[in-house]
Amino acid sequence: MSEEYTKRLWLEEDLADDLKWSMMVKNVMFSGKSKFQEVDLIHTGPFGKTLFLDGKVQSSEVDEWVYHELLVHPAMVMHPNPKSVFICGGGEGATAREVLRHKSVEKLVMVDIDKVVCDFCHEHLEVNKSAFESPRLELINDDARAQLEAYPGKFDVIIGDLADPLEGGPCYQLYTQDFYQNVVLKKLNPGGIFITQSGPAGILSCTEVFTAINCTLRSVFPRVLPYTQHMPVYCDVWGWNMALTDPKQAEISPEEMDRRLAARVEGEMRFLDGATFEGLRALNKHLRGCLAGETCIYTADTARFIHGSV
Amino acid sequence: MSEEYTKRLWLEEDLADDLKWSMMVKNVMFSGKSKFQEVDLIHTGPFGKTLFLDGKVQSSEVDEWVYHELLVHPAMVMHPNPKSVFICGGGEGATAREVLRHKSVEKLVMVDIDKVVCDFCHEHLEVNKSAFESPRLELINDDARAQLEAYPGKFDVIIGDLADPLEGGPCYQLYTQDFYQNVVLKKLNPGGIFITQSGPAGILSCTEVFTAINCTLRSVFPRVLPYTQHMPVYCDVWGWNMALTDPKQAEISPEEMDRRLAARVEGEMRFLDGATFEGLRALNKHLRGCLAGETCIYTADTARFIHGSV
Amino acid sequence: MSEEYTKRLWLEEDLADDLKWSMMVKNVMFSGKSKFQEVDLIHTGPFGKTLFLDGKVQSSEVDEWVYHELLVHPAMVMHPNPKSVFICGGGEGATAREVLRHKSVEKLVMVDIDKVVCDFCHEHLEVNKSAFESPRLELINDDARAQLEAYPGKFDVIIGDLADPLEGGPCYQLYTQDFYQNVVLKKLNPGGIFITQSGPAGILSCTEVFTAINCTLRSVFPRVLPYTQHMPVYCDVWGWNMALTDPKQAEISPEEMDRRLAARVEGEMRFLDGATFEGLRALNKHLRGCLAGETCIYTADTARFIHGSV
Amino acid sequence: MSEEYTKRLWLEEDLADDLKWSMMVKNVMFSGKSKFQEVDLIHTGPFGKTLFLDGKVQSSEVDEWVYHELLVHPAMVMHPNPKSVFICGGGEGATAREVLRHKSVEKLVMVDIDKVVCDFCHEHLEVNKSAFESPRLELINDDARAQLEAYPGKFDVIIGDLADPLEGGPCYQLYTQDFYQNVVLKKLNPGGIFITQSGPAGILSCTEVFTAINCTLRSVFPRVLPYTQHMPVYCDVWGWNMALTDPKQAEISPEEMDRRLAARVEGEMRFLDGATFEGLRALNKHLRGCLAGETCIYTADTARFIHGSV
Question: What is the CATH number of domain A2-55?
């Protein structure tokens, strides 16, 4: 009987104006509400424990490790010796968790605007609990740009783990040329690396924001390295753009990446290794063409937005 | 008003027991029915003109070129000089279309069991029309195994473009060790190559059938080369397995692949080139682990099936 | 197989902000488009051939006879001898069909703004075909108010078969006190009767527009007779309000209604007879309370609207 | 933001094979599980606090009072002086609540098979709490037939408040001629009345079970009085059949019904009064025809079932 029943409660998410999907809900585990957004931890059939902000999927237990390994470790191992790291956003805690696996890291500053979300994830996401409690982590609940600008000193790696640049949303100004030029670049130590999640990067979706973020970074940094990977919970291929102040760092061999991962990181990677990354950074012809043809540079005026709104 | 309206007619497809999606339908263009299945060409919002067999997505105009370039050309260019090709299934006509772009091909035999589907696609899929009418194509509507066994002579390339191995479905016996050993291998010329679509190959889905097809082929051929790519219309990463009778052919450089594509194929590739394929064949660590851990060899008794049934 | 398939195409309709239903679509039979709206005839699973305007259900073959018998015959038989009838709206043709079953009717004027809808229904709704071709019918495609005002002479029965009074929609001014006072009342012969469909009248929905239409009519006519009946295709109880210039006409016995139906109308009623109507006009306590408590009189300024918009 | 969000969690219910609806879920308030079924109290958008058994709607706060007034009071007031009442089923507690409003009632025996459901409703349904705690109520958790047969003495009114007669379900034997003849009739005092909910009774649904229950009762009792009313939460008109051992009791005037309700019942009716009931028992021509044409008498062998299964 209960099988029959549990198929009746569904969470419906618009993937586009003309495409929606519904995931079976086993249990609404926890719900909270801040002045910015609603946060829910829902046990869904296809994705297990799944985190939602305002009803939009943030991450799920079945594939968050893929996303977070790819957001954190490529930049961290391309840097020769990352000691100081800054995370813009990242309130879920998983990005911090991955950063803190690097033994070289002495200081991690994480600035997420929503204290309620941070507390919620600290309390309810078991896998991220110890990260929130690490003495190396300084967690600040405020605007990421203001804090990054004001923070004393510079960083070896800066990570953008922000919501997509939705029109009218809180994060779009953190994807602009102005932010990259006048804040991020200035707060990186020599040889510093910036990495940001960059939205959907599939055949049909890559020009929504991914290519423009790439183009914007290329207008500021001497070397930008894009890579992509399918994320089941987002129903699409996802994209990341890494921006290097020292172009030579990008020319790491798979074998060297494996060596550095082994030497510097606690525990095993589940998804990433040198060979994996070699594949992810080898973009397909269609995507390379879209990147080459992109001319949009994000400014406050030209920002392009993906589907949805806050 | 019509915008409002067109959002009301939806085609719902089960992606799993606990996950379903709905694509907006603009127009049911054509429908037909054979003794095997229903065939429909439906103009959907997210995927344009989309072909369905028994209500299950087969291909769409927005991404079928990705699937068919990847099914056909890697094997064709790894072969030194493919003159004769055999397609198991392929009634849509797009696989034949891609094969016939190779100037070296003198004879293409395509065996699809469903004449109604072939006629339907010949009539309604404009992009495949000339392939159906090529003098180099011999189209037979019958059982692919029986025809392949009985066909005089051997082939340089054999392509499996069949429905997924659904329990009780018409195709599962065309994924077994027995078929590969006793039919496919025997009907390949020296240096011949077999390539088959191999079902979903995502992080969460790769062990449904992809790894077992790979394992089965490895029990028969000296070299099997798996590769994957996200297909939006299938809502997942898709997998292919190429089986080579001459292992050395797999060691083609990206530059050589580009040279052969340019020299042998009419027109431009949209998705594939040497660099693209280099990325697709570099599987991620998780998928490599799943392939390495797979022990299932498909026989009539052990066949594993993906979600769904006929 | 086809059973499986036909369950996959669904027409989704919002019943409220927080309630929607989906009916299985067997076949989109015909579609048309005027400058006012889209019109579609769709064969649905639960309701058979179903007419949609802008994707909103208008009527279905499984229950349109209930609606149209109740819209037309109670007023027609309460009138002693209806010779001239005017229909505001009614483009589907079924209201005209029922009116023309009355042998007393010499002239029927029907004014529907949308010629495309009238032509579409004339062509595709077999049961209404002869009504459209009756020599007693004068069909005018124009604004109903303008035509009613300008039409020479008066009418015995005026029927409002209009779309619901949606905000910004074309029909809301045809539900106002001004229209009833200054047009309808003046164009009725002595002893004339006005009847109008009046939107949903269920326990939860009756105060959306039903009670206000009743209240507005009561401000103009000496006697208003409301009645209701469940309509499956509207997923609710539906309401009608009959406004009489001669209050005594409302006091017809069930037996007298049966006699008049038998004497005046061609063919058998399927739903209505004297006993039926006795039940429908005996409103429940809750609904009577809502009617008694209603104070809203529709004017151009105070018009209240039901869920949805044009 | 939260408005946007709360529209995303939906409870989907099949209304038929080809019709389903989805109600927005605000909150899953409480869930329980017995050896018979799952029980959930869910706050839905359209229906407020709604009780589900195995994911099937049982009742909602916005209209349960309609159902329970109609199940209980017509039979109670047609009986001259009901002192002893037996409820088959009724675990929700609302039927008992309405019975206990009758000052004449000295003893109420309620037999519901599922103790978990009774305890759940006792705890979570505030409006029924005092009924569960009444000293006049004897609540037994067991099979209703066995308890009714074995219970010492007879009853003035017996009420069937059971789940629909689903194939293989626990209740279908409580709708058979054998049960009515050999148990119910024998356990009624002289002048006793039996009343049972009788499933959907709409134009399209009345022959599912409603007419057969009526026909079965007519084969046992000298007078059966059917009546119907739309229930929003069931998305249909609902039916009840009252079976009287003394046919004359059915001929109560609306005024007498009002007098008895006023004299015997504590508090006000919200839905029912004499005029209301006069309307509900005046069935429409179509329904009367279906009742007249029904020949099916429920026995263990011929039981007909409505859509759905346990």
Answer: 2.30.140.10
